[in-house]
Amino acid sequence: MYDRADKGSRPADLSPALYRAAFDGAPVGLAVFAPDGRTIRTANACLCRWLGYVPGDLDGRPIDQVIGREAFGEGSTEVKAGIRRWLRADGSSLDLRLTLSGADATETVAVVTLVDADDLVRAEQNRDALTAAGLGEWRWDLVTGQMVFSRRAAQILGYAPGRSVTWAGMRGQVDPEDAARIQAAVTDAIAQRRPYAFQTRFRRATDGAEIWIGARGEALLAADGTPVGIVGVVQDVTTRVEAREALAEREERLRVATTVADLGIFEWHVLDDRATWENERMFAIFGRRPEEGSIGKSTFLKEILHPEDRPVFRQAILRALREDTILHATGRIRRHDDGQWRTIDMAGRFERVRPGALPRRLIGVVADVTDRHLSEERRSLLIRELHHRVKNTLATVQAIVGSTARTATSIDSFHEAFVGRIKSLAHTHSVLTEATWQTASLRDLLASELMPYAETETETSPDLRIVLDGPPVDLPSEIAVPVGMAIHELTTNAAKYGALSTGRGRIAIAWKVEAGVLHLDWRESGGPTVAPPTRQGFGSRLLQRVLTTQVQAQITTDYAPEGFHLTLAAPLPERNPALNPLV
């Protein structure tokens, strides 16, 4: 190639020596291939240096010992231009760009240059990988506004490959608000010389179908640093966005469900003992504000959980870890804001990458069951109270039967007295069960027994036969039953032998409560002359035995001729708040 000046390969005034000097001193790799395309006739020092050879060692070497076989076309002996893998003298490889020029009937000149890593990534053989990943390449010329799309990018967006549309024409396929946001983001990224990325809805040009696309890009700069274009990739992310939205919807439904159920949601990350609280209810249960953050297991066990409940929780955690089962534990926690003790139920499951692997996190829920536990305790107490009352009632009925039988003079008198007393007992229990908190009004007990004997009362003619005077007093069940029975016996005796046995008789009952003691005064007048009884009947035994022993009442009776008089002083027991169903 150095003796063909007659063919115009070099000016006539330049010698072969100058050509050889330029060849050897070139800053790029140069090689001359033999006409058969299988042998390197000669290579310059630069190419030898890159490939680890002493200058001259590549001369006469077969090309396929220096360039990988993939550089040759299938069934061909001729090497092809492009980025090729060259084999170095030490057995390693190096990517170099091969450009073929100066080919004629006798020889081919090869120019070899180093390949930038970015150029290697963008090489033609990597385009299939981009396509397989669903990525299409695009280029935007900032000078002309022209958008250039690869085949995959054009397929995603619905345009023809190559130069097919300007940004102004493409902008109409994007929602106006998104278009303004995208343009602002791109402008800012170009100004700051940094990459950018965005997602947006896009109406495909071919059929108008709405899809989601994700795009990434960065500016191309001229030699003076001026942006002249943008290159990047685009991807159809519709499926991904729809899956993300579906997941968000499911999470929102879960949050709504747990909110309605008053459940707190949490994640505990095992390795770093870090907890994430997913909803407001979790913070409310523990009495913490979101800005105060959550707490890990160590803090929970050492500072929040009641000391007596810590072993139970530790055992539950260990059991769930060993057996890979649901964690369930109940214990008391001290709320952060008010210091109150609350009872919680915790349930969760450890998440593992694979069976038998160490767990990564615990996902679970927490419920404040304080009120439920109190309700269960109250229900148990009420059941025990009911059993106690039934036993007392049966004992009372048994006493009524025995006493009525001993004092009755005939079957008819027994029946009359027994039925009246049972009805009185039933009425007292009816008043008790109608009350929300198992109490009976003293005025109601008196009125139900005495009102049948009262005269009609009007505004101008008040009742002078029955007078009830006292404040509202609710009698607890344990005192209401015996007092109600006593009122029935007093009323029955007054109707048979006392003030109510004549039309002119009257009864005045007054009561008050002082220092937790009920004081009741029963006074009869206007009836027959009274004399002390000659024998003790059921009423007397009831007053003396039941009221004094069961109610701890102090009773005085006076059988004065003008009318029977009784006073009663009975301590009112305090109500147990646990028996109140409204608490």
From TrEMBL:
SMART domains in the cross-refs: HWE_HK (SM00911), PAC (SM00086), PAS (SM00091)
GO molecular function terms noted in the UniProt entry: ATP binding; photoreceptor activity; protein histidine kinase activity
Top EC class for this record: transferase
Reaction catalysed by this enzyme: ATP + protein L-histidine = ADP + protein N-phospho-L-histidine
EC assignment: 2.7.13.3
Keyword Nucleotide-binding assigned: yes
PAS domain mapped to chain residues: 279-324
Keywords assigned by UniProt, alphabetized: ATP-binding, Chromophore, Flavoprotein, FMN, Kinase, Nucleotide-binding, Phosphoprotein, Photoreceptor protein, Receptor, Repeat, Sensory transduction, Transferase, Virulence
Matching Pfam families: HWE_HK, PAS_3, PAS_8
PROSITE patterns recorded: PAC, PAS
Keyword Endoplasmic reticulum set for record: no
Domain PAC: 196-249
Protein name, UniProt field: Blue-light-activated histidine kinase
Species: Methylorubrum thiocyanatum
